[in-house]
Amino acid sequence: MEVAHPVEANGSAASSTDGIENLVIVGSGPAGYTAAIYAARANLNPIVITGFQLGGIAGGQLMTTTHVENFPGFPDGILGPDLMDRLQAQAVRWGTRLIEADAEAIDLSQRPFKVSVEGRTLRTHALILATGASANRLHLVGEDRLWSRGISACAICDGATPQFRNEELAVIGGGDSACEEAVYLTKYGSHVHLIVRSGALRASKAMADRVLANPSITVHWHCQAVEALGSDWLDGLKLEATDGSEQGSVLAVRGLFYAIGHTPNTQLVQGQLPLDGRGYLQTEPGRPETAVAGVFAAGDVADAEWRQGVTAAGSGCQAALAAERWLTHNQLAVTVSRAPVDPEPAPSQPETATSDAETFAADARWQKGSYALRKLYHDSDRPLLVIYTSPTCGPCHVLKPQLKRVLDELDGRALGIEIDIEAEQEIAQQAGVTGTPTLQLFKDKVLVQQWRGVRQRREIKAAIETCLNPAVPA
Fold first, then answer.
1. Side-chain-side CA neighbours of residue 266 (13 Å)
2. Is the pLDDT of residue 86 over 90?
């Protein structure tokens, strides 16, 4: 399910008094969206600033996973992006307003608090920080291409995925998390390789003993990975010795898991809220309140230990309930009335059907497949925005609705085509696509610009407008 155009906050909500919001939630993911569901059902009409590029994409780390099999209620598992779609749709159904952008600044020095986003300033009585934590990455050669295609930052989340079953797997790290993940992966992989830069494990003695005694784990001492190998899926790692003892070698593995820590996304409040020694927001154990009254934390931004989707969702619930109580106690809440009492069911957006000779429409703003691409490439005089995607690509999931909005704003003066690289590998190969999402902008059969990864809506729109209104030569 893809939410086509979530509600966009406009700063004039019925819940505000003199332009002051009850509650702004910064960050999405299970924590942010769960907080939004509870706050919206309390008639607080919250705003969620979903994030877009800073600290990861909207929807959090689950947007970069494939099958999530440990979130309650989905006995057969669910794709990470689909799970986040459902949480988002549930929040919007109850009245949450979304701003699909990055928060640029937060000012906690005065009340109401100020949050800067998209060139404007929101004022709010209460604030929930659900900005998450970004898994540390090594940025190996080939990593971006193979991220979520054999490379992951969460063995606990992804280790049981069918693609890793009975395959050779690798974990990078030497601490407790790395050892724990190596042991965990032996339940699924045929063998696990633990890659350690030094000659000793930093993990606790008990955990280290457990790894060293396990015949299904091989520890590679004084070793580091320098390149991820493979085309559509990881099939090997290029290794180098860190002590100069031998030349590089190739380790044949189908899965690589990083266990080198996380970096909490606290840049917006550094110097304003106390952080612990690892940079996480400090709260009382089991509580969402921060050191500033009216500011609450939810999810991985304050969780250095568990970092699971379900624990993040639970903390989002706590933060919303605490914010509601705080607003009510301080007589700040301005609740909205809902008529009818029960909102309409959340709409379901079917996937775009692949165009063929019968369904192709020359003026359709968004179509799918190589037939539409060929017809428009040869016959249309409008700019063509082509996005190459794959079904499990979380960033693709985030970007497609944004591109559709751009095309709507341009009122049909440019057209969009989606190409599924798994269904149409030949087209992707001809286009030189090495990862998803890849964007290509064409005008008059000329490739004008290409992007890889998620990009801001305004950047894409500006490039299309340049095609539509080229500068007049001097």
1. 26
2. yes
Provide the pLDDT confidence category of residue 411 given band limits of 50, 70 and 90: very high
Beta carbons of 48 and 22 less than 8 angstroms apart: no
Do residues 143 and 243 both lie within one domain? Answer: yes
Q: Up-side HSE of residue 56: CA atoms within 13 Å toward CB?
A: 27
The reply to whether 53 falls in a domain is yes
Active-site option among 154, 157, 179, 396:
396
Which residue among 230, 258, 286 closes a domain?
258
Between the alpha carbon of residue 236 and those of residues 48, 56, 160, the distances in Å are 40, 26, 19
* Model pLDDT for residues 92-140, shown as the tens digit of each residue: 999 999 998 899 999 999 999 999 998 899 999 999 999 998 878 899 9
- 353 within domain boundaries: no
Q: What's the pLDDT at 472?
A: 46
Distance of CA 399 to the CA centre of its chain: 11
Catalytic residue (choose from 154, 157, 223, 393): 393
What letter represents residue 462's amino acid? Answer: A
Q: Which comes out higher in pLDDT, residue 393 or 103?
A: 103
In the DSSP assignment, the letter for residue 227 is: E
Task: Check if the beta carbon of residue 88 is closer than 8 Å to that of residue 35.
Answer: no
393 is known as an active-site residue: yes
Q: What is the mean pLDDT of the chain?
A: 89
Which domain, by its residues, includes 48? Answer: 20-134+262-329
The model carries a pTM of 0.77
Place 11 in a pLDDT band, splitting at 50, 70 and 90: very low
* Nearest to 315, CA basis, from 21, 38, 69: 38
Asked whether the beta carbons of 145 and 435 are under 8 A apart, the reply is yes
Residue 465's CB is within 10 A of a number of other CB atoms, namely: 14
- For residues 71 and 246, which has the higher predicted lDDT (pLDDT)? 71
In a domain, 359, yes or no: no
179 a catalytic residue: no
Specify the 3-state DSSP secondary structure of 179.
Answer: helix
Within 8 A by CB and 6+ apart from 274, the residues are: 281, 282, 290, 291
